[in-house]
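Quick one, T. Sequence first:
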Amino acid sequence: MPHGFIITEWTEDQGLVIKLSYPEDLKVDLDDMMRIFYAHITGAGAAGNVLVRLEKSRSNVSSYFTGLDSEMPLMINLMLELGEDPEMFGETVLREINVGILDYLKELSTNVSQSYEIVKKIRLYLKNTLILLDRLKNLSKEQRLAQIYISEKARTILEALQERPLSRRELQGVIEDKLNKIVPNLEFILDPFVKTGLITQDWVEGNTDITLFLLSDFTIFRRPVSKLVENARKGFPTPELARTYLNEVRQYFKDYEPSPEDNLQIAHIIMNPDNYDFITLFRERVYPLNKIPKAPGQSIDEVGSFLKDLEKYKIIKLIKDDKDTLWVFLLTDIAVHTFYPEYLIEKIRKKRSEGVIEKNVAITHLEFLEKAYKK
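Structure tokens:
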């Protein structure tokens, strides 16, 4: 589990100053903080991310720097255990966390009179963030597939393996060439591929490197909630609510077409463990707004915040009955569907005939695909 956060600011008169740490007893040597700072400012000192290994602090650090030219040159340092890699959480999740922290810090700098209350808010945000990051280690299969979809590096891997099998060395070269980024730890990016069964890795006779083979592919889209639609056709929970709900579902899916933009949005939604829990809950039945089950320690305001986002992106629909009670319906379910990549068979044949892949590699991939098909 991550150790916590240390937020530092660079000032002309004092140099690097620790602005905030969470938990409060989290301590890191200032020399180590300077190592991270120097990793950022090598070159132009522009905004960006670095991953630094600190032997003295026994930590890996995922650090975001706002840049020397920014109004407040801040470093947000997520302190990880040695061996942990930020890729396990997904680059998008970490980016959103950093944006949230920066919003609080801007509020703090412009509203000094409310500093005590704002710092309390920041600490609560960091506490909840650490809980979130811990939960992201234990995702369901469909969440892991969504994790692949929202990661630029993982999508690049998937697109490359949809064309042909690649060695680890070749795959790393493809990612770095396409994204113009150094990939320090391919293993963590490949983790969701392995855990969902999308790929297998094996040695091919005559090769000196492990080869990766795509065995399954997936797609993500919205769909009606069959159980709720069936219940509504039976007049549940009331005939009036049922009619309204069925009409809302018809209206939405009448014009619905999956798109990369919408697919990316819904992948983000189910990657959030709290959103995912609510979607799983609402797949089974509808609830009056005031009777939605809450997780231990979860406040009404937190529940309301999650529901607001789900309503905004048309995942849920709030419908009022004749007694002015609001009911929560799952308007659109999020489906992550895996399928057999039949298209690969022709691609393997073509790539082999063109001499792009070796005979042993092509045969091995076809054998793996045959086994996957039989399963």
